[in-house]
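Query form — protein PORR domain-containing protein

QUESTION: What is the three-dimensional structure of this chain?
INPUT:
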Amino acid sequence: MLTHLLQKLNHKPPTTVLLRRKTTSAEYVASRNRDPTFEKLMDKYKNLFKVIAIQDLILGTTTNAAAPPAVSLDFLNRLSQRLHLNRGATHFLRKYPHIFNIFHHPIKLQPYCTLTETALKITQQEATAINATLPLVVTRLVRLLSISVTKSLPLRAIFKVFRELGLPDDFEESVILKKSDLFALVDSDNEPNTHLLKLVGDIPKGELVAAVDNWRVVECCKEDCGVDRNEILFSFKHSYPPGMKLKRNFKAKVKEWQQLRYVGPYEAVEIGKKRKNKIGMMEMEKRAVGIVHEFLSLTVEKMVEVEKISHFRKWFGIDLNVRDLFLDHPGIFYLSTKGYRHTVFLREAYERGCLIEPNPVYEARRKLLDLVILGRRGLSRGHSEPTGVSQGEDGFTEEVKTDSDEN
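ANSWER: The structure tokens for PORR domain-containing protein are given below.
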């Protein structure tokens, strides 16, 4: 009895251990600071992506030279789920009368859809702009291959981003084959039935200057430059979402990261030799930031889908989750999750929802976005051309109501 009593007195209750639950990737994405301007822009883009998908289907049809390209509504309705058209293709097409024209086919006796004259002019303007900038397209491909560790990339990965890079539809013939002194298509040794685009020309090292290096030069040359030129040597431009609270320890970490040395995107680096200390991991992360920053700088609209960047991760020597990389650096990138996709923007390239330095291809695509934003508005009686259009304060197109506008 005494022994049993002593055991009860000496017995200690088990200590409760509070384990901190690891944040999931989805929770990390949901907890990011949102930027209203980019969210509003992406809200318009998610419908634009659907419009472009249907437009490509229409333009891809083969018809006689006299008739414009067209597809049947029955065909589009069968693809509604794949195109994320929740209420069917017909309902979606009728929302954009400036872009799509539904008519009854006189021979096949069923409803068909074609592009309006305005939309066709925009596609022609975009094609003309791309053909006029072919030298710039060649430079983009050279830079992209130069970032790769092996100076080669899978052709399928380039097909994923050919629109983002401003490449023509026939870039294999119009760019790669015509520039045989720079590019070559070879078979992959590791993956069967895979073609690699390889950089075979010698590019002088001084010609490949990263976009962030050009920004640093401009900042240092400013007369009112208030930063130490030694501090800006490895810095990136930062601008945070409005309302984001910058705590003192966060500012200190960013300052430390800005001054950290790293290997640039066009500089050679040894792959396989990983440094596991803190400084080595930070340098590896900063190099990844520099590579993705340069990748976005090479795109026409300074934005790209995260999944498409992931196809280049191994070839660029990035051993990190690129989506988490964007979330860890909200001052450089902005990640949006609208429209069944994750899209990343280069923050410094945008102001009030528009590119600061637009290009002809972007301007043509922006006209199509303006038609998407208009929807059914801006149609005058008896006409199919948009009327009463102005530029809003946030950079988006708005309608100016006139007496001729329909109710």
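ADDITIONAL NOTE: The longest strand covers residues 100-104.
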